[in-house]
Each structure stands twice: as C-alpha cells, then as structure tokens.
Amino acid sequence: MRFHSLIILFLFAHLSAVTVAAAAAWPESELLATISHERDVKSPKVIKIAKFAINEQNKRSKAKLKLVKILRCTENVYTIDNSFSLELLAKHGTRTTKKYLAHLFETKDYWFRPSTNQFELESFELAQ
Question: Cross-referenced PANTHER family, in alphabetical order (predicted)?
C-alpha cells in the first residue's frame, strides 16, 4: 500500500511539472486566444458584474452612482482570464441618467492558483 502511494505521488509531481513546463513553452498568442460574444444583460452573472462595477466605482471616486439599466455586455474569453465590457445607465443621486462604459476582468480558478473567482474593475468612464 505504501509503495502504491509513493508511485501515485511521484506521478502527480511529474505531471504537474510537465504541465507547468508545457504552459511556459506555449506561444503567447495561444495563451491569449479569445472568443468574444454578447451576454444576456438579464443573466444573474451580468447583473452581479454590473453591480460590482458600480460599487467599485463608488468606492474609488466616492460617488453615489446607482445602476439604472444594463445596455450591453460583451465577454472576451481568454485562456487564463475573462474580460467583460459593459455599457450601463447609472444615476448620480437624483441627477439625470448617464451612460457609462466599464471594463472588468474575472480571474478563473485553476489548480495552480488559489480560489479567487473575483472581479477587478479595470476602467469606468463616462461614455461619449
């Protein structure tokens, strides 16, 4: 039994090293290959992302934006992370509604990275 455990441990360590070496040898263009598609603006994940973007912008700029409507969401699926581009309508207090563009990254959960599955707001700006 102990011998079998040692063999399994050795195989796991070997496969892990081979996987890391193969990832390092891949051309960068393959690691960054993307698939871009529109997401349903009413899906729970898109709503969660939009609320996160508004909350994060409020923390950064000490604004009081409130989400009014999600107009569009485009997801770019990368090998390592996903990015989202959102077009939002938001109000600042009782003022008029304005259109904003938000860009976020979502970190995927992999065996070599601790579980994160978090979003990071890259930019948030007033649309022109």
Answer: CYSTEINE PROTEINASE INHIBITOR 5
What is the residue range of 22's domain?
1-31
Q: What is the mean pLDDT of each run of 10 residues along the chain (128 residues)?
A: 60 48 48 75 93 93 92 86 91 87 82 65 91
Question: First vs last Cα of the chain: how many Å apart?
Answer: 68
Residues 6+ positions from 48 with CB-CB distance below 8 Å: none
Asked if residue 45 and residue 77 are part of one domain, the reply reads yes
pTM: 0.68
The number of beta carbons lying within 10 Å of the beta carbon of residue 124 is: 22
Token representation of residue 22: 């193969």
Sign of the four-CA dihedral 22, 33, 36, 100: positive
The amino acid sitting at 76 is N
Asked if residue 116 and residue 60 are part of one domain, the reply reads yes
Q: Are residues 50 and 26 located together in one domain of the fold? A: no
Residues 100 and 44 in one domain: yes
